[in-house]
Give the backbone structure.
Amino acid sequence: MPITPDFAALIDRLNQELAQTEQFSTKGLSLLRELLSRSPDNVILLQYYAFLNATQLFLENSIRQMQAGVELVSSTDVSNEEIQNIGEELGTILGQTLEVRLRVE
């Protein structure tokens, strides 16, 4: 079944948000590595570093979930109910990504 324009728009938005969040997170990790090399016992910096590492893991998992959803929707024998469920899951991931991006910024 072909992907509908609404579904494609959701995927595009999710891709954009994931990429932007990854850029912010990667930049933050780079800055924190430099700061931690100067003061490795700084607990606050370590907490930020752990958060950004967890963010990277979340982003990787979200990308995999999105790819799996797109593959499933692209298959020929998918029901409308399954498409609806996948769309809802991707919408949830988008919401979570936006929340994480706000924390990373």
Observations:
- The chain has three helices and no strands.
- The helical segments are 5-38, 43-74, 80-104.
- The chain has one domain: 5-104.
- The chain has a mean pLDDT of 93.
